[in-house]
Amino acid sequence: MRYVAAYMLAVLGGQEAPKAADIEKILSSVGIEADAESAVVEQLAGKNLEELIAQGREKLSSMPVGGAVAATAAAPAAGADAGKKEEKKEEKKKEESESEDDDMGFGLFE
């Protein structure tokens, strides 16, 4: 991924077809030893970076993404008891934090 990012930086810097030395220079400037930059240059040679990004976006848009459905389904199943317990916990935390914040961990005349 770092090689692709360096390639993209070189393109944004004005080079239409960055070479392996350009990628190595970018990576070495941030302390990364480059060893496979030539493979990235070979695979991206002659290709338009904007078109490759657009193709990648199309592929990502068809990918299913989960997680939100499970979270919304689990919320009603928790019930009212869980909400009351959470409120009590929050009240305790607020009380503790208020007493700690009053003197900020040290006394003025101690």
TrEMBL record:
<comment type="function">
    <text>Plays an important role in the elongation step of protein synthesis.</text>
</comment>
<keyword id="KW-0689">Ribosomal protein</keyword>
<protein>
    <recommendedName>
        <fullName>Large ribosomal subunit protein P2</fullName>
    </recommendedName>
</protein>
<feature type="region of interest" description="Disordered">
    <location>
        <begin position="74"/>
        <end position="110"/>
    </location>
</feature>
<dbReference type="InterPro" id="IPR044076">
    <property type="entry name" value="Ribosomal_P2"/>
</dbReference>
<dbReference type="GO" id="GO:0002182">
    <property type="term" value="P:cytoplasmic translational elongation"/>
</dbReference>
<dbReference type="GO" id="GO:0022625">
    <property type="term" value="C:cytosolic large ribosomal subunit"/>
</dbReference>
<feature type="compositionally biased region" description="Basic and acidic residues">
    <location>
        <begin position="82"/>
        <end position="96"/>
    </location>
</feature>
<dbReference type="Pfam" id="PF00428">
    <property type="entry name" value="Ribosomal_60s"/>
</dbReference>
<comment type="similarity">
    <text>Belongs to the eukaryotic ribosomal protein P1/P2 family.</text>
</comment>
<dbReference type="InterPro" id="IPR027534">
    <property type="entry name" value="Ribosomal_P1/P2"/>
</dbReference>
<dbReference type="InterPro" id="IPR038716">
    <property type="entry name" value="P1/P2_N_sf"/>
</dbReference>
<keyword id="KW-0687">Ribonucleoprotein</keyword>
<dbReference type="GO" id="GO:0003735">
    <property type="term" value="F:structural constituent of ribosome"/>
</dbReference>
